[in-house]
Amino acid sequence: xxxxxxxxxxxxVITLSVYAPAxxxxxxxxxxxxxxxxxxxxxxxxxxxxxxxxxxxxxxLVLTKTGPSLALPNTPLTYTLIVSNTGGMTAQxxxxxxxxxxxxxxxxxxxxxxxxxxxxxxxxxDIGNLAPEASGRITLTLALGEVTxxxxxxxxxxxxxxxxxASATWSMPVQPNVQLYALQPGNYGGS
Length: 191
What we know:
Elements: E1 26-33, E2 47-54, E3 61-66, E4 77-85, E5 91-99, E6 104-110, E7 115-119, E8 122-130, E9 135-144, E10 151-159, E11 165-173
């Protein structure tokens, strides 16, 4: 730095920006030592340390689910599931499970991932590895069956091999199936 002027009480501030290699994980200590050709009466004041804990980048799963605002009889219900990794490390062996509530019937799906229907209500996609900032999209088509609840709530969950989890819920009211009957017109005129 060269020669610094004798301080009049104001400190000399030096700012350094440093980056740790991506492989660095754990505690690190930054040590600063100031030295001079002149012997310092208090050399202990010429040293400072700062400890920092560097955490490993981790995957962060985010799951969103969107669907219709109202469940109508005899109308396909289309949902979209998007699973994303917003973390700094690949999410390994991601699996998405969608558990359908009573009253929803699986009819079709569109996704580039292996799909399994474990039972009438459990749908599973093996997404595989999801790189940082990557996402995957699944489109799901359902039908309305016999419903006993006025609101359907559907929950999906994404999990990774290293225990990261994300879930998303979609709820919608059910429009009851109304049937109208035409009756034969009668003679209401009194004749």
